[in-house]
Inverse folding.
């Protein structure tokens, strides 16, 4: 992610990579993660509450590709506001190879079903620079991840031994998850920069409790005065317990993969 540094207003050539000196930095590109999605909804059938593995049990693809964006604004001498966005969704049709229980409803083995999930993250992070030199940039801060999640399964079910009927089960939630974070950036040369960051929190907030970890490691190459290219490895892990009126259960997901982007700074 982006990091706070002293503002540099001069446009004279610098011996430092511009991502450590420019006031605004924007990264736009594609994120190619391997994803894992597991959902549980409290039920009472046979007294068992089972997780639904969306990759294994309903055939949702483990791979994804999605647009992602990072934006950073430096202000004052040591402060910055950093933002991040990505959204992922998937839908699949399959024939179940085992029973899937969801909210006291069983979609039986051999049923033709359609299932899908949606997941989006908006991250805002407010940070302060500490103890840096010209080529090194280290800082700490606090932030907020706004998480939106949803999932559904629809298909034929059998009720009380009668004829099959079409049924749909779905859940959704929006959760604000605050976090603490740190970053470190190093200007290898005016053309190359190394970037790293980590966010983490385990908290209980209203209807939600759980942990979030968000890590990024990467490099950026400055091709021209205001444009560059970069490659990051981003990993997001979320373990969320939900206690809403219409959803009691868990949502566990991970997204781990490469973010390839173009960058501009000014």
């Amino acid at each position: 992610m982006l990091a706070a540094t002293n503002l540099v207003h001069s446009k004279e050539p610098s011996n430092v990579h511009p991502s450590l000196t420019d006031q605004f930095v924007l990264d736009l590109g594609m994120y190619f993660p391997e994803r894992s999605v597991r959902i549980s909804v409290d039920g009472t059938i046979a007294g068992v509450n089972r997780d639904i593995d969306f990759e294994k049990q309903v055939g949702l693809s483990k791979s994804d590709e999605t647009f992602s964006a990072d934006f950073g604004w430096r202000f004052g001498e040591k402060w910055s506001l950093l933002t991040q966005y990505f959204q992922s969704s998937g839908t699949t049709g399959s024939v179940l190879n085992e029973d899937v229980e969801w909210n006291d409803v069983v979609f039986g083995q051999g049923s033709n079903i359609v299932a899908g999930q949606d997941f989006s993250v908006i991250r805002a992070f407010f940070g302060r620079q500490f103890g840096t030199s010209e080529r090194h940039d280290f800082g700490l801060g606090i932030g907020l991840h706004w998480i939106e999640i949803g999932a559904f399964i629809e298909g034929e079910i059998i009720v009380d031994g009668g004829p099959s009927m079409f049924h749909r089960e779905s859940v959704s939630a929006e959760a604000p998850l605050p976090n603490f974070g740190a970053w470190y950036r190093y200007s290898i040369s005016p053309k190359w920069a190394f970037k790293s960051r980590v966010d983490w929190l385990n908290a209980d907030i209203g209807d939600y409790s759980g942990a979030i970890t968000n890590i990024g490691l990467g490099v950026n190459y400055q091709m021209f005065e205001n444009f560059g290219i970069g490659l990051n490895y981003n990993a997001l892990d979320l373990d969320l317990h939900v206690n809403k009126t219409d959803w009691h259960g868990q949502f566990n997901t991970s997204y781990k993969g490469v973010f390839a982007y173009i960058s501009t700074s000014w």
